[in-house]
Task: structure prediction
Amino acid sequence: MAHTTNNHTMLLPVVAVAAVLALMAAQASASGAYGDPGKFDSYVLALSWTPEFCFQNPSSDECKSIEPSDFAASNFGLHGLWPQYNSSHDGHDWPQFCHADNTSYWKAISSVLNNVEQEFLQQWKKYAPAYAYSDLLTHEWQRHGSCALPAVLNAWKSVDALYDVQKAYFGYQMQLVAANPTPGFVTQALKSGKPVAVSDLQQHFGGAQYVGLQCVMAGNKAFLSQIELCYAKDATGRPTTKTPCPATVLNNSYDNNCVTTKQSHVYITKMK
Result:
């Protein structure tokens, strides 16, 4: 459904914040560095609703590149795969920019290799246009990917090792996107303009404990902007099976504000 008002007030920051932060990541990462690669409890798979992002950011490069018939115009797309703690660590709910305060290490691992970008580029154009057309890719790797696989710790020693780590991390993202297609009732709501019940979304993804739902407010209506699913991991950092989301996700006003603000229904934004 297209928004019916320009009074489009976010309940909290959404995908646009990550894109803005990407421009500052190189400078801000050292002061925000926390945690060790591989030492976290679970993953959050964040799947964004691109039409909602593009309603807010129509001039962004990824939005200008999308046609109404494209996958991203009517399906959830990748925002990121984020390591998460089950409980707060020294005031941190997740690790980020791991070891960015080690200059030599960070200089070696902080960039996404060109051959990795080329390998995934066609997939990103379809499933993650913000990775293909904006700076979000670099931000997601620096903030989240640097903390994901324990093998990152040794990846700074050779380009081949870094290639293997980045290929694995971004490959896991693509596997999880494919495993979570957009529900048919969301597609129907997109066509009809009718809202979707929050409880239906929760049930589809396994129940209220298994999904976070992010909304943007326009007038007195809530528009779905992102879903977040939680995954367990193995010792290598590979995401395995869906798992109940921790309180650090479910009670968070960024990750689950459709629920924390007690929305019963959400509207689905149509690509303009």
